[in-house]
Amino acid sequence: MTQTPDRLRELRRRRAIEGNIFRISPDTIAVFDADIAARINAINFRDQEVPDPIGDLLAGRREPVSWKQIRAAWGPVLRRLTGAEAVTALYERMDALLAQRAGAQLDLAQLAQEVCTYSLLPIVIDGLSDVDDARIRRDVTFGFTDLATLQPKHSRWSRLRTTATEIRAGFVVRAELRGRARGRRDRRADLTDPLVDLLPTVGYGRAVDAVTALLTAIAGPPGAIGACLLFAMHRHREWTEHLQAELAQVPQTGLHAPAATPITTRFVKEALRMWSPPLLLARTARISISVPPVELSAGQTYVVSPHLIHRDPARWERPEQFDPQRWLARSPGLSAGYLPFGLPPKTCPGAALGTVQLIALCHLLCTRYRIDWADSARPPEIALGAVAVPVNLFGTVRPVTRT
Ligand code: HEM
What we know:
Helices cover 54% and strands 11% of the residues.
């Protein structure tokens, strides 16, 4: 990941010369055509099994387990999490986190990461003791800090520390699953809970991996794009005023319905086009795949970049310009070359929830708080690492006093 900025620049240069599909190395192909990438991905992940040979052997399980089974189990929980009640609860958690940090001058990109990630934790795993909650928090904090670091230090010590934290988080998840399965801990309305019912089929190893995959997922893209939204508010003050006017009319209990916030929804969609995290998705071909002109053997890698696809001048007018109004005339979707939530069948299952959370973040910062942007010698800008990271974005969040 250290090389991502240079790598991205190089990939962009080569795309301008060679087009959307080219070989990066003998075993890696860049696929920057959204339709071809979608067809490759559909074949590659048609029947993704989740292996756990030792666990299966020990438990005498013979049936293969597919990733689709696990994703399907999350479906009903995720639908409930985007309903009015759950979105209001998410909003209140975000509000409480902002209130804790209000009044002090801060790195606002870091603040957005914390608010987005920590407020999502209870939807993944709820009801933990303070000690266990702190362990999980530490794990996700390492996750988003790593992602936002522009020059990661891969020292042995930092790798060891991260691994130890991941292992501890895995133990917490395992203990929670076991406690719920044995009736010693309460069942909860979180995304860990459906895995308790699946334990006889999938076993503890896969269930723990599924929950830790969720923890990784919430520690990355939501806060990264949340930080970019703040950058866009700073850079495009006229848009902040449009958002303030719209969101002042929408109560927090109405945020689950995107139709209530058309302007903010366009703003969020455009931020996701400009700074879609992660900037590169590298996938290993699980089988031989032929989608002309791409031929992949099992084990080779295809690299998709939502970031570069979203800036393809053949698909987008003025691709480098932040213009939420473009969404008045354009429908989102893969066929339009828009893939901020990745490619089917692996598209982000938290897409709807993630979008609602970003709208909630805008609502909080436009109605309950105001941001006093700090003057800094160097103006805020976006740096490209594994994700787009706003740098020099400092300011103070203050509660709005209501009269
Ligand atoms: C705006 C916020 C978010 C963005 C931009 C985002 C983006 C993404 C992207 C680009 C992928 C990779 C898809 C692929 O491989 O093609 C992904 C995967 C995933 N996301 Fe999100 N995500 C967001 C929020 C969330 C939330 C809130 C959750 C949890 C509820 C979540 C859970 C996941 C999971 C579990 C995967 C792995 C899916 C799989 O491997 O099948 N994401 N996300």
